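Translate sequence into structure tokens.
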Amino acid sequence: MQKFIKIHSSDNVAVALEPLTAHSELILPSGTLLLTEDIPQGHKFALCNLPEGAPVIKYGAQIGTATKEIPTGSWVHTHNIHTNLDQLLTYTYDRQATLLPSSADRTFQGYRRANGKVGIRNGIWIIPTVGCVNNVASAIERQAQSLISGSVEEILAFSHPYGCSQMGNDQEHTRKILADLINHPNAGAVLVLGLGCENSNIDVLKSYIGNYDENRVRFLVAQDCENEIEEALNIIQELVDYASQFHREPISCRELVIGMKCGGSDGLSGITANPVVGAFSDMLISKGGTTILTEVPEMFGAETLLMNRCETEELFNQTVCLINNFKNYFKEHGQTIYENPSPGNKKGGISTLEDKSLGCTQKSGHAPVRGVLAYGEPVSRRGLNLLSAPGNDLVASTALAASGAHIVLFTTGRGTPFASPVPTMKISSNSALYQKKSNWIDFNCGAMVEDSSLEELAAQLFDYVIRIASGEKVKSEAAGFHDMAIFKQGVTL
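Result follows.
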């Protein structure tokens, strides 16, 4: 097994792929290097003497500046480097978008809906308009399990605390996300459960839903019923009968929409898991499919790489707004724009936001940016899209689902059990996590530094996504987990 990696030829640091001990002698192309101290897995060490004020280079880009002299072979981390990032920046469009060559189509077994959209699950979704009916929705979900039949795979309620006593963007976000989930093609049919007196009541929400099939979407106001659970169960039986008409059939993977997110990242995330997801993204886009990248605050420091891959100057300007709007959001709330990475990220070897962002954006692959989406905006253009949403794992994953993602690919170096409204595949950056949390992790990219290549893992991941899209469950689904979260006090693109 390789003990360390120098990611780019111009880097002046390398990353430990396993714990390295002080006084170990490492073989480099230029000679030998003696480590001066222990280097934890995923952490960096200096390949040459770095004077105070010297740039620290990783991924071929500057990830910070040395705050004091760092001798050759020394540990490079938060104690001796700092970020170079500052407040709002002025950006210049330097177009470097290159179309990917097309590749042969693949098919999966999905559900073609009456409106032509495609889903990968055939569920009955219960969507509360307000948190006041969360417990009722959960009770309906529990009692409705006996009604599952035919091709209907699941009956799920998506609880949330919002829908009333909200103002401005908060209220708009709630209404948009709820409408997006109601229209999501993974739901064969939907019961919208209202209380009756809330701000985001059913009559208000209908204008956000738009045109809908009255057989597919049904509404129930709890205050208007003598027994709302009994009435809901009667409606769900009718929805099950409706959704049972849909059956899996071969569908081109150009219809697939895949969301991409990372969380609990470590020093290997940008070396293994994120590049593999990026290669997967390129493969899917080359076949006409669609991917969505989000968590805007974790683009800070690598945003110009995405900006310059925009197909048009209009998309470039939209991406500038995407970045600066989130920076202004932090400033308006008295927060430091670059107060990142998290404690878990630092423990895993990520030292600055540039370090984190350059690794994070590896998930975007090399495809040109073809769309920039506001929070809650459905995807409309095939190819790579950027979505306005925060870094919070559950909020961002819900946003990806709301924008139309059938599946979320979630890379992690530390692990997490959460789910989202759509199948959420956990992809580990290291084999130790995969082995320790086999009940959480679906796919291991730690093999990339052991015995597998990037290309091999990307092809395996593509095959796995096809199986998930065809009905195989990810670990969180098999455990019965399903979550959603709505962005509170967000920004408007």
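Note: The first strand starts at residue 4 and ends at 5.
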